[in-house]
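Continued from yesterday's entry.
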Amino acid sequence: MHFRYDRGAVDAGRVLLHVYRALKEKGYDPVSQLVGYLLSGDPTYITSHAGARSLIRSVDRDILLEELVRAYVAGAAGGEGR
């Protein structure tokens, strides 16, 4: 299965960073909270601080996962993921 989406609509990487920072500001473990959200789809894993919950819900979870894999591969393989 291959997913395509309009990159201009929402930058998933920026959404993830914004949500990560908001979770950290509130004292949560951002990685655990993001994993919980991505696996379950339950928005209560994400704080409403700084609009993080609304923002993350504006992007499909499969798009967020695709961005995470792409960023990981780009970092681990010297840019192959982009």
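--- second protein ---
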Amino acid sequence: MAVYERATKAVLPEEQFEMFNVYLKKAAEIYGVTYTRQIYEQAIEVLSDNEAKQMCLKFADLERKLGEIDRARAIYAHCSQMCDPRTNLDFWNLWKEFEVRHGNEDTMREMLRIKRSVQASVNTQVNFMSAQMLSAAVAASDGLTDTGKDSMQRLEAQAKVLATEAARDQPVNRNKVAFVRGEVTEPEKEISKAEVHNSDEINLDDVESDDEIKIDEIQLEERGVPDEVFGQLKKD
């Protein structure tokens, strides 16, 4: 039997239930069904809730067949802590039938009291888990909101820094290119019409008129040619 016992610990968790069934079968064949009680107890302690519940039902049925009603009732009471009345109606119906056959009014009342206690415990756990989930969801949403605000604030601060640096890098006397209209403004028209007086300016019309005047005033006079000019020709 030591080999089977070590095997129940060496196998994978999902294989333990089947290994315990083999162990129980061999122990019952060799040592009798009463020897299997300690094996049942060991299996209920190490198996998962769903598998432990199945092992409890088998153990309770064994005790009932052996006539150990109180033992069977204690096993049902232990198993009830793993059975939610809303989702494990089969278990509670089976226990009710057991009390109808082998119990009395007091045991039936005790079974109903345990059922209400388990129901209240499950409701408390569900409410607590719901509150935790809601709190976690609210905290997560607040964290996302704060993170979004912080990101926007950081972006705005960076934009302000960049704008300040760009303004600082610009030259102080920067020539700005502006659009010049093609039409002549009123001041420009007045300037174009105004005559600018320059004392050194030469008036060509005046020069021409003066020359004409001088030409008109010149009178040609006829004068004789001196004899010295002709020289010897004159004598001939």
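Residues 171-184, 211-216 have pLDDT under 50 and may be disordered. Residues 1-138 form a domain with the Serine Threonine Protein Phosphatase 5, Tetratricopeptide repeat fold (CATH 1.25.40). Will compare against the first tomorrow.
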